[in-house]
Hints:
mainly alpha; two-stranded antiparallel ribbon; 2% strand; disordered N terminus; disordered C terminus
Amino acid sequence: MEFKWSLKTTRTLCVLTVLLMVSIRGIASDEEQHGNDGPELKSYHDPDNEEEDVHLSPVIVAGASVTSGREVSQLEEEEDQSPADGLEGEEKEDLPEQPPPAEEKPKEVPVVNGGTAHGEPCVFPFLFQRKEYIDCTTDGRGDGRMWCATTYDYDLEKKWGFCETEEQAQQRLQAEEAEEQYQTVLLMLNVTARKTQKKELYEKLLKVAEKGHQKAMEKVAYAMLFGDYMNQNITKAREMFEKLAVEGSPKAQMALGFLYAAGLGVNSSQAKALVYYTFGALGGNLVAHMILGYRYWGGVGVPQSCESALTHYRLVANQVANDVSLTGGSAVQRIRLLDEVENPGSTSGMLEEDLIQYYQFLAEKGDVQAQVGLGQLHLHGGRGVEQNHQRAYDYFNQAANAGNTHAMAFLGKMYSEGSEFLPQNNETALQYFKKASDLGNPVGQSGLGMAYLYGRGVPVNYELALKYFQKAAEQGWVDGQLQLGTMYYNGIGVKRDYKQALKFFNLASQAGHILAFYNLAQMHATGTGVMRSCHTAVELFKNVCERGRWSERLMTAYASFKEGEADAALVQYLLLAEQGYEVAQSNVAFVLDQKGAKIFSENETYPRALLHWTRAAAQGYTVARIKLGDYHFYGYGTDVDYETAVIHYRLASEQQHSAQAMFNLGYMHEKGLGIKQDIHLASPDAQVPVFLALCKLGLVYTLQYLQDFNLKELVSQVDLDQLLGPEWDLYLMTVIALLLGTVIAYRQRQHQIIVPPRPPAPAPAPPPRPPQEQPQAETQGQGEAQGQGPAQEEEEQQQ
């Protein structure tokens, strides 16, 4: 009992001792805290909610109450500090002392340059329009130049000057002079169409670029890269791009990405290319966005990501759609170099100069159809004709005066849109639209619908707009279909109906309208009215992006190729191929395959061509797929691989039904190359029908040729006496006799061939006999058989 009582006493004393120590420390910390009047440090949290952020679990120590969070933190600090303070004789580590704060230098007061107080110092603060300024400002100026007052009250004394030194003023004047020269040269470049004049203007632009003008440097660097009106110099272009990239030019960053991706002037590096493309895209360069969109879509140098591709393509498509005008913009001409070489008679869509001159001659003679056709060509450009609104207006005006409704409607569109040549005028546009619409022209009806939809020259009237759009759509006019889809999509004048909107957008897209593709892409991207499909949306947005203003580079590259400048054409096609143009990818591969370019060494041409054939084939180009099979079959740019060649040929034959691929597969089946030898697959069953069909085509062609040749007139003009001599009839009779003798001899030889007789039919089986008679019958049968053998042998010998 005494032992238990002493144990309890000891425990009680220990608990009281602990409580006493805690209370003493708490009192001491409170006194210390109240004794310090210094500033209190605050966290990012709200002070009112500070206690809620500190989560302390309640601790009960022998009935003692829980301390507050502030007390616990102070206790922990003291416990952390106490061991260090209590150790004697321990060397303390010398920590680097914090340097004293740098003394703030007094702000230099600038001396003004120019103005009304040249050479005097600024006065801060100064009063301007009842507002005090403590530094130079641009307020009150439209040119963005900094200025200050040299007295306190500018409003009263008007003493002021620019906050710049003499050196800064000189630099500013040089920059203003360079900008003025740049704008002058740029205006002349946009006006002139002669190549010699453009070359002279680019020489002037080079001098402006040497003064440090950023836009001039960008334009000159691209001209040197592509060989546009300047000698192609990729090395110097790269140096200019590197200098511009340091200054933050998104165009230069995109160009450097292209150089590293293609290995032009630098060692190829897809990692560096991706970095530069990303910086260019962040700077707002649309071409860089388009390249990144294609790379994410195809998994080129980056992991394949449809959503990332959608983000980049949608951003570019938004800008392209905003630039689309009522007249539709310029046309995009896509020409395959391979088709021109392998099929010389095929039409590439380009109009020959002689044909254009012929149409111009007809238009001058008053041919209305020729006038309207030439007007449309000059309005949109393309097919070898440059866009020229002035010529388009002249041709449309001539045809409209002759009463052509299409010309009236297109004049209305030109006035409604406006251009540098023709000022925008809603009233005049409305008059032309009404004239054309009253005569039933769908273009005029669509134009009237646009006027009522947006209130151009008339009050807004959705019912009339819907009525005119429906009339135009019923006649198959693409603008009417597009606007009907827009009204149904937004519920303008009608009940919102996504199915109807989808229907009309699809109809307009079949005619190739860029805004129809854009609207369909938006619907598939957001899942509006259709199931959401990232893949479909990306393909549609890609189609829109490829109709941007950069698509004009396709025609300049083609022109360079036709002029024999293969290197210039190749670099331009390479950039377009980076943007995802399948036509450019196949053209790059073709130029490399022909070994016409000199910027790459011979051992690089086939591997690079193989890369671009692969990219073009991935976008569905059949010939590129066959080329891939050829490259693997012959070992161009890669090792000989018959199995891979079979795969490519089979894809081209099964998915794209290529006759050439089927023939190649048949040959490989026959020889057993890369696949098991199979004669039946090598000779298809359809060869007879194909032969008969070809014979039929040959016969039809011959009959048509003879019909066009006018055989009667030819016979009447031929004099056989002069051609074959006076005894031509004897020659003819001799030839006929020889032919007749040949036929008779052939027939006699056929009759001399004796057909071997057929073996006699087997005798019917004899009826069953008694068992004792069977051996006799068998013996007789054997004798008959033996008797017939020699007779047959004699007959065979006689035969």
